[in-house]
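> call design_seq(struct)
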C-alpha cells in the first residue's frame, strides 16, 4: 500500500460498513473503523479534512440518511392523509345514516293524561268536620285500640303464615330478580366457546387440501359484547324494572293491611254472634217461663190452648235463633282459622272476644296533603306510572341506531391427524375488535306503533292512579260519615231498647197478674228483641266502620320510608 497520500480499500454489507484509510508519510499500516448508520468514520492518522476518500464516504452516508428520512416522512404523510380521508368518510356515513333514521320519528305522539293533585280536591264537609289537629295517622298496630290479646296474636299469626300474603311476597321476589336480570343489560357480556372435532372433509365438496383428508378442526374462542346504550334504552329498562319492584313492595304492604283488616272484621263478626247469642238466650229464658205460666193458667182454667200454643211457638222460635247464632260462631271460627293460615281445627281453640269500647271518627287535619304517602295502593299505582314513563323512554330509544362494541379472541387450527394440540400456540391466535350497529330505516311504522302503545299505557296508568286517589278519598269520607251516623244511631237505639224493656216488663207482669192477654206479651217481646238486636248490630257496625277507616287511612303505612310507621301511640282510637 504505497504510492499516494491515501490508499482506500474497503468492504461493506447491508448492516455494516468498513473503511480503511492509509497515509503513506505517517502511517505504516491501515487502520479499521466500524461505521454504523448513525456514526462517522475517523481515520487513524487523524487527518479528517485532508482525506478525500473520508470526505466522499461520509457525504454518501449523509445523503443516504437524508434520503431515508425523506422516504419515511413521505410515508408518514401518506398514512396521515389516508387516516384523514377515512375519518371524513366515516363522518359522512354517520351524517348520511342520521338523514336516513330521521325519516322514522315519534312526532305527533304524546301522553294526554295528567295526575291529580290531592290538595286540589274538595274533601267534603264530613272530613272537614272530623279533621282534628291532634288526630294522628294510624299506627302499624292500629288494632291495639281493641285491647284484646287474642286479636293481637291472630293478626301476628296471619301476617307471618297466611298463604294469601305469601303469594304477594313471591311477586315481590320475582320483581326483584327481574330487575337484577335487566340490570345485566348495562354490563359487558363475555361468552366462551370451544369446538373439538375430528373431521374428514369431502373431496368432492372441498379443494385438496383439506378435501379428502381427515384433520383435527379445533378452536377455542372468547366473545365480548357491550351495548354502549348511547340513547339510554337499557337504563330506562332497568329503572322501569326498579319502579315495578317498588310497586310490588307497596302491593305487599297493601295486601298485609287488607289481611289485618279482614282478620279484625272476622273477629268483630265473631264477637257479634256471641252478643246475639246472649240476647236470644236471655229472651228464650223469658219465653220458657211464659210457657210454664201459660200451661199453669190453662190447668187452672184461666187460659186456653191457644195461649199455650202461642207460648210454645215463641219458645221454639227462640231456640232456633240460638242454634242459628251458634252456627254463626262456628262459621266465624272457621273463617278466622283460614285467614291466619291454619286448619279448621284451629278455630275450636278460640275464646270469646273481649268487649270492645268506643271508637272515634277523627281524622288528621293534614289528610289531603299527606294522604298519598299513607296509602300503599296509591303509592303502588304511582310507581306504575313511573314504570310506564320509562316504557315510553324505551320505545323512543328504538328510533335511534343501536351500537354495540364487539371483540373476540380465538385459537384455531386445522391440521392432519396427530396434531390435536397444535391449536394451543401463538401461531393459532386470532382476534378482532369492532362495532356492530343497526339502523332503523323503514319498518312500516312498527316503532311508531310501539311508541303509541307505550304512551297509551302511560295514560292508562295515570288514569288508574287518579281513580285510586278518588276512591281512597271516597272510602275515608264514607267511613267518617258512617261513624258519625252510627254514633247518633246508637244513642237513639239505646233509648229504644230501654223503652222496649219497660214495655215488655209491664205487659209480662200484667199477663202474669191476669190483667193483659198473652198477645200483648208477644208484641212487646218482639219489639224489645228487635231493639236489642239493632243495638248489637249498630255497635258491631261501628267497629267495622272504624276498621275500614283505619284501612282507608293507610293502616300505618308510611310511604316516605317505604315501611309501616312503628311510632307508638299512633292509633286513631281515642
Amino acid at each position: 500500500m504505497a504510492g499516494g497520500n491515501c490508499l482506500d480499500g474497503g468492504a461493506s454489507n447491508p448492516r455494516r460498513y468498513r473503511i480503511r484509510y492509509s497515509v503513506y508519510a505517517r502511517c505504516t499500516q491501515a487502520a479499521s473503523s466500524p461505521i454504523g448508520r448513525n456514526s462517522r468514520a475517523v481515520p487513524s492518522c487523524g487527518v479528517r479534512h485532508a482525506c478525500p476518500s473520508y470526505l466522499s464516504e461520509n457525504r454518501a452516508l449523509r445523503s443516504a440518511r437524508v434520503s431515508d428520512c425523506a422516504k419515511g416522512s413521505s410515508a408518514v404523510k401518506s398514512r396521515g392523509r389516508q387516516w384523514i380521508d377515512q375519518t371524513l368518510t366515516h363522518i359522512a356515513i354517520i351524517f348520511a345514516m342520521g338523514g336516513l333514521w330521521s325519516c322514522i320519528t315519534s312526532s305527533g305522539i304524546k301522553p294526554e293524561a295528567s295526575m291529580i293533585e290531592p290538595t286540589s280536591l274538595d274533601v267534603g264537609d264530613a272530613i272537614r268536620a272530623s279533621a282534628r289537629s291532634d288526630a294522628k295517622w294510624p299506627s302499624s298496630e292500629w288494632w291495639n285500640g281493641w285491647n284484646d290479646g287474642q286479636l293481637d296474636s291472630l293478626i301476628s299469626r296471619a301476617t307471618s303464615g297466611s298463604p294469601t300474603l305469601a303469594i304477594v311476597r313471591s311477586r315481590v321476589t320475582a320483581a326483584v330478580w327481574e330487575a337484577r336480570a335487566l340490570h345485566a343489560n348495562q354490563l359487558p357480556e363475555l361468552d366462551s366457546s370451544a369446538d373439538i372435532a375430528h373431521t374428514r372433509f369431502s373431496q368432492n365438496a372441498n379443494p385438496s387440501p383439506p378435501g379428502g383428508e381427515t384433520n383435527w378442526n379445533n378452536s377455542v374462542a372468547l366473545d365480548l359484547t357491550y351495548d354502549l346504550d348511547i340513547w339510554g334504552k337499557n337504563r330506562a329498562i332497568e329503572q322501569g324494572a326498579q319502579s315495578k319492584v317498588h310497586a310490588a313492595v307497596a302491593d305487599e304492604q297493601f295486601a298485609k293491611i287488607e289481611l289485618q283488616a279482614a282478620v279484625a272484621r272476622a273477629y268483630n263478626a265473631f264477637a257479634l254472634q256471641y252478643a246475639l247469642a246472649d240476647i236470644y238466650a236471655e229472651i228464650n229464658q223469658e219465653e220458657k217461663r211464659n210457657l210454664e205460666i201459660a200451661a199453669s193458667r190453662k190447668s187452672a182454667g184461666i187460659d186456653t190452648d191457644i195461649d199455650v200454643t202461642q207460648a210454645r211457638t215463641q219458645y221454639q222460635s227462640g231456640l232456633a235463633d240460638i242454634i242459628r247464632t251458634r252456627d254463626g260462631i262456628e262459621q266465624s271460627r272457621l273463617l278466622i282459622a283460614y285467614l291466619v293460615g291454619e286448619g279448621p281445627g284451629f278455630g275450636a281453640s278460640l275464646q270469646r272476644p273481649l268487649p270492645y269500647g268506643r271508637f272515634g271518627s277523627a281524622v288528621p287535619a293534614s289528610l289531603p296533603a299527606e294522604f298519598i304517602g299513607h296509602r300503599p295502593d296509591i303509592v303502588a299505582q304511582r310507581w306504575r306510572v313511573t314504570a310506564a314513563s320509562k316504557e315510553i323512554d324505551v320505545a323512543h330509544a328504538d328510533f335511534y341506531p343501536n351500537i354495540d362494541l364487539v371483540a373476540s379472541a380465538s385459537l384455531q387450527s386445522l391440521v392432519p391427524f396427530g396434531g390435536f394440540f397444535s391449536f394451543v400456540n401463538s401461531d393459532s391466535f386470532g382476534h378482532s375488535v369492532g362495532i356492530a350497529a343497526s339502523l332503523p330505516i323503514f319498518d312500516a311504522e312498527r316503532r311508531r306503533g310501539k311508541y303509541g302503545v307505550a304512551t297509551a299505557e302511560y295514560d292508562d296508568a295515570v288514569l288508574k292512579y287518579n281513580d285510586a286517589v278518588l276512591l281512597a278519598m271516597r272510602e275515608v269520607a264514607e267511613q267518617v260519615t258512617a261513624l258519625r251516623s252510627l254514633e247518633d244511631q246508637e244513642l237513639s237505639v239505646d233509648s229504644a231498647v230501654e223503652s222496649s224493656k219497660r214495655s215488655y216488663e209491664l205487659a209480662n207482669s200484667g199477663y202474669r197478674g191476669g190483667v193483659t192477654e198473652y198477645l200483648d206479651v208477644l208484641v212487646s217481646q218482639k219489639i224489645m228483641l228487635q231493639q236489642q238486636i239493632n243495638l248489637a248490630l249498630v255497635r258491631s257496625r261501628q267497629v267495622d266502620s272504624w276498621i275500614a277507616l283505619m284501612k282507608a287511612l293507610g293502616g300505618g303505612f308510611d310511604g316516605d320510608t317505604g315501611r309501616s310507621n312503628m311510632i307508638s301511640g299512633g292509633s286513631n282510637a281515642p
